[in-house]
Every structure is written in C-alpha cells, then in structure tokens.
Amino acid sequence: MAHAAANGGHDAHAHDHEHDHESLKTFGFWIFLITDVILFGSLFATYMVLHQNTNGGPTPEELFKMPGIIAETFILLTSSFTSGLAVLGMNKGNMKQLIGWLIVTVILGASFVGLEVSEFVTMVNHEGASISTSAFLSGFFALVGTHGLHVSVGLIWMIGLILQLRRRGITAVTKRKVEIISLYWHFLDVVWIFVFTIVYLMGVM
After folding, report:
1. What burial letters (b/e) apply to 172-182, b meaning 16+ CB within 10 Å?
2. The Heme-copper oxidase subunit III family profile domain covers which part of the protein (predicted)?
3. Is 136 within 8 Å of 46 (Cβ atoms)?
4. Angle, nearest 10°, between helix axes 66-91 and 172-194?
5. What is the rounded CA–CA span in Å between residue 61 and residue 40?
6. Of 57, 108, 149, 205, whose CB neighbour count within 10 A is largest?
C-alpha cells in the first residue's frame, strides 16, 4: 500500500516536472516570437525609408502584379484557417483530423512559397529587378524574402511534426509542438497582412 502510494507520488512529481518543462519551452517560443516581431519591425521600417528610392529602375506600380499577390494572400490566409482546424482536431483527440489538416496546411504553404518564388524569378529575369538594382528593391527583397524564408522553415517544421505525430500520437510533447507551430503560422499570416498592405497595396496606389 505504502509502495503504491510512493509510486503514485513519484508519478505525480514526474508529471508536474514534465508539465513545467513543456511550459518553459512554450515560454521560450514566446521570447523567440518577440525577437521576430522586432526583426520584422526593423525590416518594415527600412522598407518604408527606402521604398521611393528606385534609382531610375522599376517602380512598385510597374513591378507588382496584383492578381498573383491576391492569390498568394488568399492561399496563406486559408492555410492559417486549416492550421486552426488541425488544433481543433487535436483538442478532440482526433489524430486523423489533426494530421489531415496539417497536410492541407503544408500543401497551401508550399503553394504560397511556389508563387512567391515565381514572382521573384519573373522580377529578376524579365523585369531586370534584382536586390542590387535599387534601394527600393533591396528593402523589398529583404522584407518579403525574410517572410518567405520563415514560411519555408515553418513548412519543414510542420512536415517533421507530422512524421512525429504518426510515430508517437498525441502526447504532452506533440500537443505543445502543434500549438506552437499553429501560433507561429498565425503570426506569419499577420506579418503577411502588413506586407500586403504596406508593400503591395500602398505600392500600386
């Protein structure tokens, strides 16, 4: 009896320790997110200072093809919704729904990156607009490229998490990871809304 009580106490202590460990990792992610906010804030500020310095090169009005940009925006916003559905599935304990919506999110995110790479290639190869053409384009490629890089990292992270979920199922660790990747993905969507408004909409107006 005493032995069982001791084991119960040990298990409870181990559970509390695991919970604290996961909470600490979540807190660490919030610190990372704050540094990312500072990074993007600096890139936005730099772009705003440089965006009128075209050096005789292509202007935003000449470069930006809004139908493609609107398609990118729609795809990324939809992927934020599907990542939320994945978390909903996880909270219901539905592994099939969780993994299914994460896969849909990956497909949408990859489509976004593909369209953005296509946009960059067209700018460089057909418009002669590279990162060294003007201060405006340096600011543009630094800001939009950094966001695209973050999305690409998120995709790799999400694919790794899908594989881990298939092996381990929904545990305290994988649950925390799903919640964090979803938060990260929503953050990238918010950043893109600012990119869409400040870079593209203001650029063509």
Report:
1. eebbbbbbbbb
2. 1-204
3. no
4. 160
5. 23
6. 108
The Cα–Cα gap between 81 and 24 comes to 27
Both structure tokens of 63: 């470069």
Is residue 97 within 8 Å of residue 85, measured between CB atoms?
yes
Intra-chain end-to-end CA distance of the chain, in Å: 77
Mean pLDDT by 10 residues, the chain (205 residues): 49 54 82 95 96 89 93 97 97 96 98 97 92 95 97 97 95 93 97 97 91
For residues 30 and 180, give the distance between their C-alpha atoms in angstroms, rounded to a whole number: 9
Enter the tokens of residue 162: 């899908």
Q: Which tokens belong to 95?
A: 């592994």
Instruction: Return the axis-axis angle of helices 135-168 and 2-50, rounded to nearest 10°.
Output: 160
